[in-house]
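User: Show me a protein chain along with its predicted structure.
Assistant: Here is one chain, sequence first, then structure tokens.
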Amino acid sequence: MQAQRQLAGLLDQLNTVIVGKPDQVRDCVACLLAGGHLLIEDVPGVGKTTLAHALARAFGLQFSRVQFTADLMPSDLSGVSVYDRGREDFVFHAGPVFAQVLLADEINRASPKTQSALLEAMEEHQVTIDGETRPLPSPFFVIATQNPMDQLGTFALPESQLDRFLMRISLGFPDRAAERELLRGEDRREMVHGMRGTLTPEALSELQARVLQVHAADKLLDYVQDLVAATRSGRWFLQGLSPRAAIAVLRAAKAQALLGGRDYVAPDDIQAVLPQTIAHRLQPVGGAGRGAVEQVRALLEAVPLP
């Protein structure tokens, strides 16, 4: 019961700041509860950065923000060793990646070299600098925002980087009622600055442990494997999902079930998270006339429920 009250309060607080997008907010919370990294992709001005700030604040975690630009260097993220004459030795100055939440704003405006600097951090929760491996804080999340690929000055994220994100979501334009509330209401950035953390790091760790304990029946695991096998058939996508992606789907579904107040995963949980969890990892077959998200939805309709 306490966990449900905590999660309900967290969702209410976020929905006060990000109006008219309850499904997307729920996906974001599920992603972080599952211990995954989050990618928010959309056109400028729809609230990507505001949502990322609000998530970090609501989870009660220390965070840092980096504005990715074409001239950003890997050392600007990880930090540098500087010679200290007083000590007669090199002293390491940690970069912004040493935070519990790293907000990588407009990640696809940086060069591929800088983007790749995040790979080790996202997968291993550590960085190697000057031959020395340094652990990152726990928990460690990357919340990245990016603009659509057709925008000027963007570099596409490589497949290996996209695979490190548990989910990719898109906010889209608000409906008329939500937009009217934005026009009449308080400035969203001021609201974010006034937010107090709903959770503590300890409470978050407990919730993440509960996510792992959510039960998945054998028939449901069969369903996940059927969906993964369908992506590998060559009918919808050029290449299918990896086992890591299958594990990501199950973790996200478990978090979705916990948000729904259940200790078991239902097929609806799988269907609710599948497009956001796998579409960014897949490339539709040529001539399909659909994007990856639409292809995933077509796959869902074709694979029978358990």
